Amino acid sequence: MLLRDTGKKLQTMASPDSNGREAKDRSQFADREIISWEEGDKENPHNWSHVQIKRNRVLLTTMVLIINSTLGSSLPSMAIPYMAKAWGVTAQEQMPLPIATFLMGFVLGPMMCMGPLSEQYGRRIVVVSTFSIFTIWTLACALAPSWPAFLVFRFLCGAFASAPIAAVAGIIADVYADPVARGRAMAYFMAGFCSTSIGWRWTFWIALIYAGLTFIPVIFLPETYAPVLLARKAAALRKQKPESNVYAAAELEDRDLKQLLTVVLTRPMRMILTELIVSSVCMYLALVYAIFYMSFQAFPRIFQDLYGLSPGVTGLCFLPIGGGCVLGLPIFFAYDHVLQRAQKTGKAWARQEEYRRVPLACLGGPLFVISLLWLGWSARPAAGVPFWVPMLAGVPFGLGWMLIFMALINYLTDAYELFAASANAAASASRSLVAVVLPLATGPMFGGGWAWRGHAACSRG
Question: Where is the Major facilitator superfamily (MFS) profile domain (predicted)?
Answer without folding.
Answer: 58-461
